[in-house]
């Protein structure tokens, strides 16, 4: 789906950022934790949106790269004692490398088979860290180092400041991915998504472009993983379960897969809803399930579609008024 | 050694009952019903309640199978048929949402405690076979799996409905063009698939015990069987179930270090080397 | 953001309602003592245990009408949804937003790892009502983390000698392949081999994959041990007890294990197969002391089932906290003093005499060896032995105290 | 004598028992206009797919400007200057005509790999796209979504996309299929107007198109070459008439 005119997109992005900071200011302790969790989930959702929305590659194992980013940070930072910044960069590289190896195999497959192999690899990695006691196995591992931003007067150990930091990173990731989506590379991904055979006949090495998208998505997901690990200074196999992969896929689909802002808004909705429902009832998963099924049935192309529909109606009414 | 072989065979038959429905539906309608595990769990729970109420395992077997069939039917008519034109992604996602719902409904109705579905008194204890004591109930599971496989094979290969289903798997549009009401056939196949999942649920009750959340582990195993065996074909589901059953059983005892990863590695390898699976359905899967 | 407080107020009202039957006494206008519960109430396999602990702790606090040294006690309940990062976030909310005086929880080891660092840095007392990881009161101990349940080693340390003494020379070990599994099997193995026993097989099935114990029981049969010593809880425990009998192993060897194997939570689904199992644990419903008798009567009256070891730990935690608050004269702003008060108190719990060892912050308690037997048509417990005052060595914990 | 722009040597392809292509050899000189005709089932589409790289031959070679491209896939051959149109429209439905043409040119000249520049702010590429649109008669529909175009316009865009890659050899698969007479005349004018820098090989049923456009014609029969010659030779050849034309004309 072709992105709307850029000035309206950046306006919406600013609006979302202001809303998030507003919520951050108004909320108490736990609200700030939610802002951090939402920012991290939005980054992860944006990375999957690049795959699902632009290249049309539906992955049901994306949490694996999120988890690998967290575990790599724990490995480099805590076990090998590297400085956090270096460990973080290395963790993102490990995520990209894993995506390269898996993607090299997976992009040859199409449709439901692609879903199956991403699911299989995700479960394989989860099973490995469930058993691997050097990383604490089921119990996970604590003591993950945080970035030292004391130079600019920011202490990431304080959850409130960490939430703002995560929000800033999310905004940065949005700007970077937005440029990528609007670049010739992004346009070619959309061409492949809409008609792979024609793209190949025009001379596009389709496999390499899909692989590049897979690697970028893996790297950004690993980045989100490093943030999640620093948020609670802790990693556990819960970071790479297939249910998390499913939730993120739901967020991307509900957000209107191709739109970075749509999926970010959907991430906020998902986290907020999950929290709100879980304070009301222990059976919040029932409500989430129902809401999700309804959204998939009703929302043609998710929140983004709804936003754009709204936009078009406003523009049409304005034009009608001017014409009258 | 013989015990492990029998254990492998028993797990294989259980997996066959569970995955044959998933596989044929996938072959026919090109979509994966992730809520198949939920129907397995529903069958187990309904079976459990029936045994507690009536004390008869055989009634429970019927009740569990019927409940899953009815639930499957409603699921197809209510949700899945409407999503048919929307393509496989939407259908997969809806069934993913149903997992959440199924889990919580089971927890609401049957609580959080694990219960064991008692096997029939007549099959309790162990019998001597090939010079080894082996639980009689598990021999029943093996026998039941083989019987259902034979029945389905006969139904698919010998009867008119079987021919129509195979044609549908091969080329759906062509079959529809021949004036066969393909939707009614798919509905029947889908309901039978769900019924078998419910049957597998009751049968697994005494072996795996019944608790909210038992669907996840089993669903992943079923997906591996469908992919390895070759989606859409009975022979594929049977072969896949045998391979996975044996790999899971022997893997965990002889290669415990790698056991967890073994299955998924196998599935990934098959997806790459033979995406159509070991024994694909029609000539052109 | 008052919405989020509503769950807390709801719990408080429940507390107050029970208060009606409590002591009249003039409650000064002091703020209430706030206790934050961080347990998995909605997702994952431990929902039942979370409810057992919460219900039993309420039973204990009801006895005083939720009052201690003139201050009302308020319970704030937060759901970890079985996710470690949510557990930590909820703990931070309880401490920084709701200003609770102490935290009680969690159940699973992953959530414990997440909460431990936070409680240590925030200097807020965290009382562990279940998770048994040895390191938490061993080399990684913290002055702020106390445990009222057990350490894995504490449960099985004396079982090795006991079984060797009872003539079990060859034993096979079986537990899931994760930290707790290895700690419990290790804790049994050393004293058992020192007492002359031999381990014939030691197997660790992968955690989290519930297929079937057939393969491992097959290997155990070939090894022909006198007994099998195991660690399983919940659905896997139900499964193992059943399949042990189905494979006819009960005719060739004795089934034994950490007491959760035949916990009251699993007994209903195990049926008669659970009879004849030797267990070792810090609690058995059949313990003969007045506190346990009244606890079981009130629990069974209210919840129509036998109180489990998790319930007993919840009840004793409530009693210990109440005693400590009384000891500290209701003052909770000095958290270090509150911990000292916890060290100073001794109470008679459901499990017998209980105290917190200042050198490790772990509970000192009696350990019971028992056997399940058919009592009428139901399976019941018979206490075989009682090992008094089992205390963990510091194991590298430098609390001194 | 410079190598032919496009050549096939002894191409062989069979599907099970069916021999779809039986040792076909042909050569199209640079700037040439060559047509392939034959009844349904003569193996025209199979030969087309062997030349475009969609199918790999069992035996024989395909040469593009003298270099052997037999083992190259469709994208490899496209990058060497071979473009093709599809018999059934194969477009980018959710892209505007302008964006589709720009995308095609970006893919062909490697510009697609750029991941930093803005795709929609590339005036040079936009002008080139507009020029191609004008050439294929879509100048006034640049902003329309490809999926919403009328059938005839989609056929024109089909050719436009191929031209946007600035090919040296253009393979056309029944370009006038399903077109009205005046649409066919417009398409013929368009194809005739293409510069001689582009070599054209066309598969066609419509005899007028073949005889108007082609300088040489290859007649396929059951996968093999029945006859090759100028349109005049084909028209007068009794072999062809008996086998092919005879059954059709008055």
Strand content of chain A: under 5%
Biggest sheet features of chain A: 2 strands, antiparallel
Shape of chain A: globular
Q: pLDDT average of chain A, as an integer?
A: 87
Rg of chain C, alpha carbons:
21 Å
Q: List how many beta strands of chain A DSSP finds.
A: 2
Give the neighbour order of strands across the main sheet of chain A.
1-2
Give the low-pLDDT segments of chain C. Answer: 1-6, 17-28
Shape of chain C: globular
Structure in words:
Chain A has 324 residues and is an all-alpha fold. Chain A has one domain. Chain A contains 13 helices and 2 strands; from the N terminus they run αααααβααααβαααα. Chain A has a two-stranded antiparallel ribbon with strand order 1-2. The mean pLDDT of chain A is 87. Chain C folds into 2 domains: 196 residues, Response regulator (Rossmann fold), CATH 3.40.50.2300; 128 residues, Response regulator (Rossmann fold), CATH 3.40.50.2300. In chain C, helix 2 packs across helix 12 and helix 6 packs across helix 7. The N terminus of chain C is likely disordered. In chain D, strands 6-7-8-3-9-10 form a 6-stranded mixed beta sheet, sandwiched between helices. A 4-stranded antiparallel beta sheet of chain D has the order 2-1-4-5, covered by helices on one side. With 250 residues, chain D is α/β, with parallel strands linked by helices. Chain D is 36% helix and 24% strand. Chain D is globular. Chain D folds into 2 domains: 137 residues, P-loop containing nucleotide triphosphate hydrolases (Rossmann fold), CATH 3.40.50.300; 85 residues, Rossmann fold (3-Layer(aba) Sandwich).
Explain briefly what this protein structure is.
Chain B has helices at residues 2-29, 36-54, 57-83, 88-110, 136-158, 160-170, 172-177, 182-208, 214-229, 234-254, 256-273, and strands at 126-129, 132-135.
How do the strands and helices of this protein lay out in sequence?
The complex is a heterotetramer of chains A (324), B (285), C (401) and D (250).
Chain B lengths: L1 H28 L6 H19 L2 H27 L4 H23 L15 E4 L2 E4 H23 L1 H11 L1 H6 L4 H27 L5 H16 L4 H21 L1 H18 L12
Antiparallel strand pairs in B: 1-2
Helix pairs in contact in B: 1-5, 1-6, 1-8, 1-9, 1-10, 2-3, 2-4, 2-8, 2-9, 3-8, 5-6, 6-8, 9-10, 9-11, 10-11
Chain C lengths: L2 H17 L13 E7 L7 H16 L4 E2 L2 E9 L4 H14 L4 E3 L4 H14 L3 E3 L16 E3 L4 H5 L2 H7 L4 E6 L3 H16 L3 E6 L10 H10 L3 E5 L3 H12 L7 E5 L8 H4 L7 E4 L8 H14 L5 H19 L7 H10 L1 E4 L2 E6 L4 E14 L2 E13 L11
Parallel strand pairs in C: 1-3, 1-4, 4-5, 5-6, 7-8, 7-9, 9-10, 10-11
Antiparallel strand pairs in C: 2-3, 11-14, 12-13, 13-14, 14-15
Helix pairs in contact in C: 2-12, 3-4, 6-7, 12-13
Chain D lengths: L5 E10 L2 E11 L4 E5 L6 H9 L6 E6 L2 E2 L5 H6 L2 E3 L12 H12 L14 H13 L15 H14 L4 E5 L7 H12 L6 E5 L3 H7 L2 E6 L2 E6 L1 H6 L1 H11 L2
Parallel strand pairs in D: 3-8, 3-9, 6-7, 7-8
Antiparallel strand pairs in D: 1-2, 1-4, 4-5, 9-10
């Amino acid at each position: 789906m072709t992105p709307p005119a850029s000035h309206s997109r950046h306006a919406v992005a600013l609006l979302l950022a202001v809303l998030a900071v507003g919520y951050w200011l108004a909320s108490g302790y736990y609200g700030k934790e939610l802002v951090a969790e939402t920012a991290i989930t939005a980054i992860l959702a944006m990375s999957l949106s690049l795959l699902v929305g632009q290249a049309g590659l539906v992955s049901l194992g994306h949490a694996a790269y999120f988890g690998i980013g967290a575990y790599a940070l724990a490995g480099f930072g805590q076990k090998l004692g590297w400085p956090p910044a270096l460990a973080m960069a290395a963790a993102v590289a490990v995520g990209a490398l894993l995506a390269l190896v898996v993607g090299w195999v997976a992009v040859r497959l199409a449709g439901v088979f692609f879903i199956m192999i991403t699911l299989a690899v995700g479960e394989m990695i989860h099973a490995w860290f469930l058993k691997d006691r050097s990383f604490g196995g089921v119990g996970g591992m604590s003591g993950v180092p945080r970035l030292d931003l004391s130079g600019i007067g920011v202490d990431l150990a304080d959850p409130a400041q960490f939430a703002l930091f995560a929000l800033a990173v999310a905004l940065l990731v949005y700007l970077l991915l937005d440029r990528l989506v609007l670049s010739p590379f992004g346009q070619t991904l959309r061409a492949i998504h809409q008609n792979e055979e024609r793209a190949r006949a025009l001379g596009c090495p389709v496999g390499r472009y899909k692989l590049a998208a897979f690697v970028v998505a893996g790297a950004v997901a690993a980045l989100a993983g490093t943030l999640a690990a620093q948020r609670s200074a802790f990693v556990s196999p819960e970071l790479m379960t297939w249910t998390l992969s499913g939730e993120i896929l739901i967020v991307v689909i509900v957000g209107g897969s191709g739109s970075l802002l749509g999926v970010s808004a959907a991430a906020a909705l998902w986290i907020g809803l999950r929290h709100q429902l879980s304070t009301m009832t222990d059976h919040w998963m029932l409500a989430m399930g129902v809401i999700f099924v309804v959204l998939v049935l009703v929302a043609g192309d998710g929140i983004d579609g709804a936003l754009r529909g709204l936009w078009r109606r406003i523009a049409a009414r304005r034009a009608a008024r001017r014409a009258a | 050694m013989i015990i492990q072989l029998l254990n492998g065979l028993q797990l294989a038959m259980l997996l066959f009952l569970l995955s044959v429905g998933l596989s044929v539906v996938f072959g026919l309608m090109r979509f994966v019903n992730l809520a198949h595990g939920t129907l397995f769990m529903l069958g187990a729970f309904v079976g459990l309640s029936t045994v507690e109420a009536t004390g008869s395992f055989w009634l429970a077997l019927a009740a569990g199978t019927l409940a899953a069939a009815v639930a499957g039917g409603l699921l197809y008519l209510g949700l899945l048929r409407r999503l048919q034109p929307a393509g496989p992604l939407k259908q997969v996602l809806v069934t993913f949402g149903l997992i959440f719902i199924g889990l919580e409904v089971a927890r609401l109705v049957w609580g959080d405690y694990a219960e064991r579905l008692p096997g029939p008194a007549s099959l309790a204890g162990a019998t001597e076979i090939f010079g080894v004591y082996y639980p009689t109930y598990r021999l029943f599971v093996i026998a039941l799996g083989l019987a259902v496989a034979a029945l389905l094979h006969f139904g698919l290969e010998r009867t008119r409905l079987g021919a129509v289903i195979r044609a549908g798997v091969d080329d759906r549009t062509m079959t529809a063009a021949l004036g066969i009401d393909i939707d009614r056939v798919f509905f029947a196949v889908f309901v039978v698939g769900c019924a078998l999942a419910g049957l597998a649920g009751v049968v697994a009750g005494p072996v795996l015990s019944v608790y909210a959340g038992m669907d996840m582990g089993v669903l992943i195993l079923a997906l591996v069987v469908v992919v390895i065996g070759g989606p859409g074909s009975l022979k594929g589901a049977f072969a896949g179930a045998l391979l996975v059953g044996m790999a899971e059983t022997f893997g965990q005892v002889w290669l415990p270090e790698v056991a967890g990863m073994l299955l998924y590695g196998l599935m990934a390898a098959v997806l790459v080397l033979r995406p159509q699976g070991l024994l694909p359905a029609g000539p052109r899967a | 953001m008052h919405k989020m407080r509503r769950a807390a107020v709801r719990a408080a009202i429940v507390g107050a309602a029970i208060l009606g039957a409590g002591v009249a006494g003039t409650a000064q206008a002091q703020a209430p003592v706030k206790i934050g519960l961080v347990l998995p109430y909605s997702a994952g396999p431990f929902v039942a245990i979370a409810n057992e602990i919460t219900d039993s702790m309420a039973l204990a606090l009801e006895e005083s009408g939720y009052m201690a040294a003139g201050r009302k006690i308020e319970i704030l309940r937060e759901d970890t949804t079985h996710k470690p990062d949510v557990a930590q976030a909820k703990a931070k909310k309880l401490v920084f937003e709701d200003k609770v005086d102490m935290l009680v929880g969690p159940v699973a080891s992953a959530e414990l790892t997440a909460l431990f660092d936070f409680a240590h840095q925030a200097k807020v007392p965290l009382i562990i009502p279940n998770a048994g990881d040895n390191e938490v009161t061993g080399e990684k101990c913290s002055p702020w983390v106390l445990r009222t349940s057990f350490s894995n080693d504490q449960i099985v340390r004396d079982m090795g000698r006991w079984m060797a003494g009872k003539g079990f020379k060859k034993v096979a070990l079986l537990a899931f392949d994760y930290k707790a599994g290895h700690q419990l099997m290790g804790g049994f193995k050393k004293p058992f081999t020192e007492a002359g026993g031999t381990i014939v097989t030691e197997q660790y099935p992968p955690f989290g994959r519930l297929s079937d114990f057939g393969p491992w029981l097959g290997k155990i049969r070939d090894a022909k041990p006198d007994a099998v010593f195991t660690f399983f809880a919940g659905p896997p425990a139900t499964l193992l007890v059943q399949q042990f009998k189905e494979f006819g192993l009960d005719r060739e060897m004795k089934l034994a294990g950490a007491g959760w194997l035949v916990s009251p939570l699993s007994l209903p689904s195990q049926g008669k197969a659970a009879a004849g199992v030797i267990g070792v644990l810090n609690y058995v419903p059949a313990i003969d002391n007045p506190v346990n008798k009244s606890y079981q009567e009130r629990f069974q009256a209210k919840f129509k089932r036998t109180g489990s070891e998790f319930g007993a730990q919840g009840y004793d935690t409530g009693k210990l906290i109440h005693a400590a608050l009384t000891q500290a004269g209701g003052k909770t702003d000095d958290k270090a003093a509150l911990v000292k008060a916890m060290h100073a108190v001794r109470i008679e719990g459901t499990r017998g005499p209980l105290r917190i060892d200042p050198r490790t912050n772990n509970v000192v308690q009696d350990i019971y060896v028992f056997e399940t037997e058919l009592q009428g048509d139901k399976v019941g417990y018979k206490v075989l032995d009682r090992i008094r005052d089992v205390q963990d060595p510091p194991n590298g914990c430098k609390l001194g105290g | 004598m410079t190598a032919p722009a496009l050549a096939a040597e002894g191409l062989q392809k069979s599907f099970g028992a069916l021999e779809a292509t039986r040792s076909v050899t042909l050569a199209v000189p640079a700037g040439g206009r060559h047509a392939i005709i034959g009844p349904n089932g003569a193996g025209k589409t199979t030969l087309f797919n062997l030349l475009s790289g969609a199918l790999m031959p069992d035996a024989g070679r395909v040469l593009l400007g003298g270099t052997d491209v037999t083992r190259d896939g469709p994208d490899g051959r496209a990058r060497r200057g071979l473009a093709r149109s599809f018999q059934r429209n194969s477009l980018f439905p959710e892209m505007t005509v302008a964006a589709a043409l720009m995308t095609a040119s970006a893919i062909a000249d490697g510009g697609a790999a750029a991941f930093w520049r803005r795709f929609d702010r590339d005036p040079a590429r936009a002008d080139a796209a507009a020029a191609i649109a004008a050439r294929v008669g879509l100048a006034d529909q640049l902003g329309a979504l490809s999926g919403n175009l009328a059938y005839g316009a989609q056929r024109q865009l089909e050719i436009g996309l191929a031209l946007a890659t600035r090919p040296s050899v253009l393979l056309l698969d029944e370009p006038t299929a399903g077109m009205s007479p005046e649409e066919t005349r417009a398409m013929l004018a368009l194809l005739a107007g293409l510069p001689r820098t582009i070599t054209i090989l066309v598969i066609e049923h419509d005899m007028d198109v073949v005889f108007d456009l082609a300088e040489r014609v290859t007649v396929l029969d059951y996968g093999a070459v029945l006859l090759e010659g100028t349109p005049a030779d084909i028209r007068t050849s009794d072999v062809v008439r008996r086998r092919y034309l005879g059954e059709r004309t008055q």
